[in-house]
Write a structure and sequence with these properties.
The protein is α/β, with parallel strands linked by helices. About 30% of the residues lie in helices and about 25% in strands. It has a six-stranded parallel sheet, with helices on both faces.
């Protein structure tokens, strides 16, 4: 275990910081939520009022010069990830950057080299999904980065980064990629890709990751694994996000535990070729805060970070190939 406390400075105070980072940092004993950059606080959205005692900055350039900050967490829009991560590394900080890592594999390569040059650790905050459908046929005036046709925007970067990362984590890099990116919404004035389907070709198998915004179902599928001897189908989202949104924190009773009615179904083919199906208990999940505990361990022990930037870079390269495949209407070899 670490013998010292590490001061964490967060850049950005949107939903990502509020739900997926601050609550997790606060439950890791070796971490101290020390500072935050919020450029334009408002009476009903003020980081310093919400977190008394935390040091406030209006500019990232000022916070990274604070020698008492050990770790910088970048939670801003993807178009800013490269410059802010570079800024933090050049000022001697360890960095965790929200997904998607950066819009291009070229930028990822530069940051990986820079982290090694300054002997600082760099990791990417990745959660796991595999199939993310929902029913949101209207944008309703959304101004979020994920609804704009800009570098790092759209469904394949927003949700696809998580889904592709999980497939690569389990099965390794695919041989080829075929993808279809587009919009299912009628009211999409920005013309961004709100949905995606990416086929990842392997020897002897294929994985498909999919995100759609027009899927009117009473429950949305998350996983569907099919093999010669059976299949496993899982509905419902990871409840940790819901619990964090409601103010629960890792370690509290019931956090991250889903109800039995949300268990997946395992279908098996017996030796007599009879097919049977039954609920399969969900294992105790690792809390999202684990990524921060592992990051601290990596800093203390000079060990491997929880998400290697090289692996996050591979995901970005697959996304680049997916975009190219969709535009050109063909299957592409993976050249990571």
């Amino acid at each position: 275990m670490a013998s010292k406390s590490y001061n964490v400075g967060i850049i950005g105070y949107g939903a990502s910081a509020k739900v997926f980072h601050i609550p997790l940092i606060e439950v890791v004993p070796e971490l101290n939520f020390y500072a935050i950059v919020q450029r334009h606080p408002a009476p009903d959205n003020d980081a310093i009022k919400a977190h008394p005692g935390v040091k406030g900055y209006r500019a990232a350039e000022d916070m990274v010069k604070d020698t008492t900050v050990d770790i910088v967490v970048v939670t801003t829009t993807p178009t800013t990830h490269f410059e802010l991560t570079k800024l933090a590394l050049e000022n001697g900080k360890h960095v965790m950057v929200e997904k998607p890592f950066v819009p291009t594999s070229k930028e990822a390569d530069e940051l990986i080299v820079l982290a090694k040059k300054h002997q600082k650790l760099l990791t990417v905050y990745q959660k796991f999904e595999s199939h993310f459908d929902r029913y949101k046929p209207s944008l309703a005036g959304s101004k979020a980065w994920k609804t704009r046709p800009e570098p790092g925007g759209g469904a394949v970067y927003d949700l696809g980064a998580h889904m592709i990362d999980q497939v690569v984590h389990v099965f390794g890099l695919p041989r080829r990629v075929t993808a279809f990116l587009g919009s299912q919404r009628m009211d999409n004035p920005n013309g961004y890709d709100d949905s995606c389907m990416v086929l990842m070709h392997y020897d002897g198998m294929m994985a498909m990751v999919k995100a759609a915004v027009v899927s009117a179902e009473d429950k949305q599928m998350r996983f569907w694994v099919r093999g010669e001897k059976g299949s496993y189908k899982k509905f419902h989202e990871d409840c940790q996000e819901e619990h964090l949104t409601k103010g629960m924190k890792p370690g509290e009773p019931g956090f991250g535990m889903e109800p039995e009615k949300h268990q997946g179904t395992l279908t098996s083919v017996g030796s007599d070729n009879m097919i049977t199906a039954a609920p399969y208990p969900t294992i105790q999940p690792l809390p999202y805060s684990t990524i921060y505990s592992q990051f601290v361990d990596a800093i203390v022990n000079k060990d491997t970070v929880p998400v290697r930037p090289e692996d996050a870079r591979a995901v970005i390269r697959i996304i680049e190939l997916a975009k190219q495949s969709s535009v050109e209407g063909r299957t592409l070899d993976v050249d990571v």
